[in-house]
Amino acid sequence: MTTLEKEIAFDVSTVRKDFPILSSSVHGKPLVYLDNAATTQKPQIVLDTLIKYYTEQNSNIHRGVHHLSEVATFEYEKARGKVKNLLNAADGKEIVFTKGTTDGINLVAHSYGRKFVTTGDEVIISAMEHHSNIVPWQLLCEERGAKLNVIPMSDEGELLMNEFEKMLTPKTKIVSVVYVSNSLGTINPIKKIIDLAHANGTPVLIDGAQSVAHMKVDVRALDCDFFVFSGHKIFGPTGIGALYGKSEWLEKMIPYQGGGDMIRSVTFEKTTFNDLPFKFEAGTPNIAGGIGLGAAIDYVQKIGFEAIGEYEHELLEYGSDILQSVHGLRIIGTAKEKASVISFVMENAHPHDIGTILDREGIAIRTGHHCTQPVMLRFGIPATARASLSLYNTKEEIDALVCGIEKVKEIFG
Amino acid sequence: MSEVNELYQQLILEHNKSPRNFKKIENATHDADGYNPLCGDHYHVWLKLEGDRIADIGFQGNGCAISKSSASMMTTAVKGTTIQEAKEMFEKFHSVIMTKIGDEIPEEKVEELGSLGALVGVREFPARIKCASLAWHTLNAALNNSQKSVSTEN
């Protein structure tokens, strides 16, 4: 493709028109939304899909014989198929709808962990995990008398792979690592992690919360055993997400929650469980959310991950260069392989003060520990300011961020 | 003056840069830890009470300019006062910064606060009110511990 063709294929001004919120104002200034690692904005097609569902299709699924129930069931299961295609899973039964990434990790920690992890076993996570990929394993390890090992990282924010290799033992029952760090932007070498773990006979869970909107994932090429993500990070609604699990694991795992939909038959003496994936989907799910997520996946795939990846990388390079040149500003997380997350600290201004001043300029960034307190501890900082970019952001918005940072410097010197 | 400039007044910036009583009090009679888990602001406040008077006060820790300057100004405001006076000051300060955006604050109420009045601009920033009150809640916790232990002994 020539440069011109690429520009035609990906025109950010056209993309921006798909997101109604991007034309709004905050404190009298045009909104500059740079908090995409927290949540992404929603394109009109997702909003329309939600309205359509509630106005024309609303019904409970999997049990009604009436028309609306059939329509809702069809749409919901169609969305499952879209998630399957997004991840290139072999079969829809390997896609379990969840509330989101946290729910997916908790499901695996419960249903795999409580089946396979016993006293003296070990679980491996990494030093850059979100609290949602730390706490469920801590709870499991405490309950089971197992040990939680943490892959350390370098000052650049890269995992020390030789340390990881040394950690793998016959006692290692699962490795659970993040694909893209939400606070550092590091893209971890997950293929290598998976291969090393598999050579040790250990399954691997990949936390894809921060990767899913930015890069193509192929769970079969990666050969990961579990992959989790949240719908709201990929332009879908909140409260919906998915877990991919290899069917051979999902079949062996114990149910997560008990209730309707996850059973085949119930008597007071004995309950038999439903087939995959329904065994892990107790109760009425977030039907609208699932269908909305399907619309979001369609939207992203229409643009294509190649175009998204290239454009975001360009933004990341532009933003990193320009921010690096700001005197007194230090970028936290300088791995060679990075996604479009720029975390930074400033010499004289605390991240919260930066966040407040930028907010009054209409610029939304995230400040704080980003649910990664061990990362803050590792870098000896209480918090960072984080600009996280998405496919609808522009270089002009990064310029606005830099102008805002100049205001911070005017106040704090 | 813009709201941001009103928030970050010179006095606040100055206290942030050179916080007063930024020290641990040896032989403190009371102390407490203050932490905002949402943003990670973290301070420790030490008190030395002589009778019902705050003879000395110090704090350490870190956080944003609002929390640090508020802690610093608090120490200068309550040093030498009685417990009762300090608590009354907290109530006045709290009611001023919690005044709803758009509601008028009587001038005398701000004047009563002395230099603490510099923080009045924080009420325009609801997300930051907790930053301004963190040190005060910590002081309160330190004082309440003392009263609890006193009442238990009684």
What topology does this entry show?
The complex is a heterodimer of chains A (413) and B (154).
Chain A: H1 3-9, H2 12-17, E1 25-26, E2 29-30, E3 32-33, H3 44-57, H4 67-87, E4 95-98, H5 101-111, H6 113-116, E5 122-126, H7 135-144, E6 147-151, H8 161-167, E7 172-178, H9 190-199, E8 204-207, H10 219-222, E9 226-230, E10 241-245, H11 247-252, E11 263-266, E12 271-273, H12 287-303, H13 305-324, E13 329-332, E14 341-346, H14 351-359, E15 363-364, E16 366-368, H15 373-379, E17 384-388, H16 395-412
Helix pairs in contact in A: 3-12, 4-12, 13-16, 14-16
Chain B: H1 3-7, H2 10-17, E1 30-35, E2 42-50, E3 53-62, H3 65-78, H4 83-97, H5 107-112, H6 129-153
Antiparallel strand pairs in B: 1-2, 2-3
Describe the structure.
The complex is a heterodimer of chains A (413) and B (154). Chain A is α/β, with parallel strands linked by helices and 413 residues long. Chain A is built from 16 helices and 17 strands. Chain A has a 7-stranded mixed sheet with strand order 4-10-9-8-7-5-6, sandwiched between helices. In chain A, helix 13 runs parallel beside helix 16. The longest helix of chain A is centred in the N-terminal third of the chain and has 21 residues, at 67-87. Chain B has a 3-stranded antiparallel sheet, covered by helices on one side. Helices cover 47% and strands 16% of the residues of chain B. Chain B is built from 6 helices and 3 strands; from the N terminus they run ααβββαααα. The longest helix of chain B has 25 residues, at 129-153. Chain B has helices at 3-7, 10-17, 65-78, 83-97, 107-112, 129-153; strands at residues 30-35, 42-50, 53-62. Chain B is globular. The termini of chain B are far apart. At the A-B interface, helix 14 and helix 16 of A face helix 1 and helix 3 of B.
What would you say about this model in short?
The complex is a heterodimer of chains A (413) and B (154). With 413 residues, chain A is an alpha/beta fold.
